[in-house]
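Q: Please design a sequence for this.
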């Protein structure tokens, strides 16, 4: 059984979608939520779903071997970033080589990097009058949004679109594709 830890900082809608996708799966199980924001919506979602939560702070992140030890104690095989905004330290990447998966709400390499997340991405896409946007699912390395791409999916942007409608379309793609891409990647390893 491959055990996933989902790292999230926000409401946790992607994490919940991933949990439901793998519920009852005989090979992959969402075993832990790791959150860096006390009071984030993901915490109450995880509680409702019966998923244990590990709440970490900056001090823990500055000593990443603590986090690695907690993940190993929970027999975690893979890490999935679902709206987690901190840069993953080298020690975590070394402990989980090619086993940390992230989703980005744009077509990388455009609109990636430090500070490019959520609404900031959609506003930049809109402001620059892009003709398309989408999602990129990738492995994590030591730079923001720089790891090997596993999957991309795009959609056209019309003149009627707004940053909010672009965000809605991106969320639909995230919910539709993120869990199955995770599953495919894990099962082929």
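A: Design:
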């Amino acid at each position: 059984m491959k055990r996933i830890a989902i790292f999230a900082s926000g409401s946790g809608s992607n994490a919940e979608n991933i949990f439901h996708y793998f519920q009852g799966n005989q090979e992959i199980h969402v075993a832990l939520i790791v959150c860096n924001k006390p009071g984030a919506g993901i915490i109450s979602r995880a509680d409702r779903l019966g998923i244990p939560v590990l709440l970490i702070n900056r001090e823990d992140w500055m000593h990443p071997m603590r986090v690695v030890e907690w993940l190993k104690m929970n027999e975690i095989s893979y890490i999935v970033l679902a709206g987690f905004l901190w840069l993953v330290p080298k020690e975590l990447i070394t402990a989980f080589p090619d086993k940390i998966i992230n989703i980005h709400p744009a077509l990388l390499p455009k609109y990636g990097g430090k500070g490019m997340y959520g609404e900031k991405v959609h506003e930049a896409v809109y402001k620059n009058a892009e003709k398309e946007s989408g999602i990129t699912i990738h492995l994590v390395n030591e730079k923001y949004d720089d790891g090997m791409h596993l999957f991309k999916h795009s959609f056209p942007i019309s003149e009627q679109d707004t940053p909010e409608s672009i965000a809605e379309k991106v969320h639909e793609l995230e919910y539709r594709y993120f869990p199955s891409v995770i599953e495919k990647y894990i099962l082929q390893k």
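Q: Thanks. Anything notable?
A: The longest strand covers residues 28-35. The chain has one domain: 2-107+136-152+178-188.
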